[in-house]
Amino acid sequence: MLKRAQLSKEQMKSLLRYLAQEGNALDYKVFFSILAKNTPRYRKELMTIADQLEQKGLQKGLQKGRSEQAREIARKLLFMGLERAAIARATGLSHAELDGLMDSTV
Fold first, then answer.
1. Would you say 13 and 45 are in contact if contact means Cβ atoms under 8 Å apart?
2. What mean pLDDT comes out for the span 5-27?
């Protein structure tokens, strides 16, 4: 279908971004690789979108790791008896998040 479609490059980008966002169960690398192979007209745009999605995934993973690390450090500091306000300032966690950590350590 895409081989015969006369979409502008912007229309193709919009369509592919939509498919990538809504089809979150798909392996996007394989998806875009197959599309690029079969639709050479859009190869550059396809690979650019795939790269952007990969970067976005890496950023989410890094943020999740940082968040987990902050919670683990806060949990240890709470266990050591440090002042909650100092822990909140040092880790960037809210007092509500610290309460949740205390509930999970008991």
1. yes
2. 69
d(CA 26, CA 85): 43
Report the distance separating Cα 23 and Cα 79, nearest Å.
43
Q: How far is CA 99 from the centre of its chain?
A: 26
How do residues 28-81 score in pLDDT, each as one tens digit?
A: 677 777 777 777 777 777 777 777 777 788 888 899 999 999 999 999 999 999
Residue 33's nearest CA partner among 50, 21, 8, 19 is 50
The closest alpha carbon to 85, from 77, 95, 75, belongs to: 95
Cα distance between residue 51 and residue 48, in whole Å: 5
Residue 71: which residues within 8 A CB-CB, separation 6 or more? Answer: 91, 93, 97, 101
